[in-house]
Amino acid sequence: MTDAQPPGFNELLHSPVRLSLAALLAPAVFVEFSFLREATGLSDSALSKQLTALQDAGYVEIRRTGRRANARLTDTGRHALNQHAQALRALLGDALDPVPADRPE
């Protein structure tokens, strides 16, 4: 086995927390900070740090109105997430396929 990562593999998104945040943001237009905090179980400061890392990469846009903050996945972030998902599929290969019926588990 080689140590090479498939094209599209994204170290930033590979972090379970950041991957979860991107997955939570993907189907929505904007998501409230409080929802992301509850869904991930992160503290305010930890969530803010992870969102800032994604924002610095251009993957997330954060809008603040008063004390409320909302986040959305940018087109760049959506593309990076899709590329990373394809890279994971390539990396896992046949491991995602069901076990053939004629082969014992």
TrEMBL record:
Give one Pfam hit by family name.
HTH_34
Q: Locate the Winged helix DNA-binding domain: which residues? A: 17-91
What CDD domains does the annotation carry? HTH_ARSR
Tree of life domain: Bacteria
Q: Where is the signal peptide?
A: none
- Give the Gene3D superfamilies listed for this entry: Winged helix-like DNA-binding domain superfamily/Winged helix DNA-binding domain
Put simply, this protein is called: MarR family transcriptional regulator
- Supply the source organism for this entry: Actinoplanes utahensis
